[in-house]
From TrEMBL, chains A, B:
Record has Transcription regulation as a keyword: yes
Ubl conjugation is among the record's keywords: no
Key words of the record: DNA-binding, Transcription, Transcription regulation
Domain (HTH cro/C1-type) ranges: 4-47
Gene Ontology terms for molecular function: DNA-binding transcription factor activity; transcription cis-regulatory region binding
Annotated protein name in UniProt: Catabolite control protein A
SMART domains, per the entry: HTH_LACI
DNA sequence: CTGAAAGCGCTTACAG
DNA sequence: CTGAAAGCGCTTACAG
């Protein structure tokens, strides 16, 4: 059995309350007393039991993170950003994967509540009424990350996806592209669907060019390549492609190469994200660079503010993005 | 305030102990009584407080995971495997990144102990005496994942790295390679260093071929490419390359292309891991395929056995690997 | 500046 | 099959 606060108190000849005070710095303690306590802690090798502390204080110093899938590089990088800031503020994280399944998401919110986390960082494809209700019921502070509540009822961290898609489209148009294909995520996805499609279409309309959208079942390379191979012969052959993820961007490049189309000479490709994959393929991908790590970090930083009731002016964060030009355009 | 077990007991007209029993199934409860309790739980929307439960039972249903960096795809996939099995057994995970820094690793073990996790899954580059001592002190069950204690004092899940490197080398030799370069991790790394170098050298010696090892500061693409570019003119130009990670494999391919060497015609490349990157580059990578997800899953499954004191025969798991042949060889 | 005591919300022998 | 009560290891008013 390891030492408890009671053992420390006895060893130091003080009360438990005093030990607690020097541990947490919640009140002034005479230097002399403090030293006795610190010595006792030292000799006993005492470490406070966070569970007991959590029960007594109703704060667990733990943040729940719900994401679709950590094994996706975009997500993993974001989670890393969250974790680093959590560490900085002495929080730990409980990580869960939802596979973007609505019922699993709801479930996980319940689990997070049972674990008494101090807050939840959430990434998912949609913010439904049921989800909102689950958060409401759990009475937990929530921050969305790379996830949007169209009604803006929950704080969130994103880039301006609509504008970014618009910019990407403009970029290709200015490069002379006339037949720009948009490789989209599911159109009801609040991030990689609707807003980006809108930005794309707005730019095309302004330029008097025809839109052509292909919706991928996922943002993964394999699915993108499969879909492109199946549909390449029945679509207008593009001279420009905008992909909503780097993996889809790579899929586009390879689909073109397989169809004997040179990238970037005959087809220019730009993708969203700028994960590390973008520089690991040839030609290197031109991307809409998202500050992925920072998005996670900002979300977690904001969470710590919510928890500590610091007054927060901003609510819906729009982080800057930029077009990183490489060899694919 | 949300309902407590006391509220449920009163609502159902039974004692807290009885509520606890139906909740945990720790004793037989009359059907009629059970129904009353279940109804009360339903109407109050009661969910047990896991923190209180943890304090009382001394089991938190939480597993700590310490990894160098979740944002590395290999790690992320492994973590996903761990999480899935944890979910299956009703455990949650606390995830922490050590950046492979020894002091940080020790620190994290302390934190995990404070959080009263039921066990720790650990991935790191080395198992030092200090680390072992920290685990000892924390009195936590530990399972190493893709990490080796040379003395075998801690259960672990790995592939046979020595044999795998031997096989990879044999594979290239049989393809006719005479000048095989080994792109290694730091040589004191217990997984990507020593054992793989040994397997490589053994195969070369058997074939009477000269070894040539390049040690990379990290397993990342950027670092590998940089190192190769700097040293390509001062080494024997290889006709075969074995890389200890897929990223280094891609770096090797690109370094060759930049030096006007055709892959696989003039240089054959094989890498370790078979992360998804392997199929996202051209030519697609031939790899020593590791069951990454499964390694995480097996480690977590073994942990649940340790926790429940199921008698465990095996201790040091050697999962199967295979050579997946693609276009780079 | 310090202590005594209640309480956080559960589980778990111990009785019956 | 069920209940009363102690206890898990802390924090936090409340007193002084």
């Amino acid at each position: 059995m390891s030492a408890t606060i009671y053992d420390v108190a006895r060893e130091a000849g003080v009360s438990m309350a005093t030990v607690s005070r020097v541990l947490n710095g919640t009140a002034v303690v005479k230097d002399e007393t403090k030293k006795k306590v610190l010595d006792a802690i030292q000799t006993l090798g005492y470490r406070p039991n966070a569970v007991a502390r959590g029960l007594a204080s109703k704060k667990t110093k733990t943040i729940g993170i719900i994401v679709p899938d950590v094994s996706a590089p975009f997500v993993a990088e974001m989670v890393r950003g969250m974790e680093d800031i959590a560490t900085m503020y002495n929080y730990q994280i409980i990580l869960s994967n939802s596979d973007a399944q609505a019922d699993r998401e709801i479930d996980l919110i319940g689990t997070m509540w049972e674990k008494q986390v101090d807050g939840v960082l959430f990434m998912g494809s949609q913010v439904t009424e049921e989800l909102l209700q689950a958060f409401e019921q759990a009475q937990l502070p929530v921050v969305l990350c790379s996830t949007i509540d169209p009604e803006g009822r929950i704080p969130s961290v994103n880039i301006d996806n609509r504008q970014a898609a618009f910019d990407a489209t403009r970029f290709l148009i200015e490069k002379g592209c006339k037949r720009i294909l948009f490789l989209s995520g599911s159109s009801d996805h609040a991030v990689v669907g609707t807003p980006r499609q809108e930005g794309y279409q707005k730019a095309l309309k302004q330029a008097g060019l025809p839109p052509q959208i292909l919706e991928c079942p996922s943002l993964r390379y394999e699915d993108g390549l499969k879909m492109l191979r199946e549909s390449f012969h029945q679509i207008v052959v593009p001279d420009g492609v905008i992909a909503v993820s780097d993996e889809l961007g790579v899929a586009a490049i390879h689909a073109c190469l397989d169809a004997k189309l040179q990238v970037p000479d005959q087809v220019k490709v730009i993708s969203f994200d700028n994960t590390r994959l973008a520089v690991m393929v040839r030609p290197e991908l031109t991307t809409i660079s998202q500050p992925i790590y920072d998005m996670g970090a900002v979300a977690m930083r904001f969470m710590t503010k919510l928890i500590h009731h610091e007054n927060v002016e901003e609510y819906s964060f729009r982080l800057p993005y930029e077009i990183t030009v490489r060899k694919s355009t």
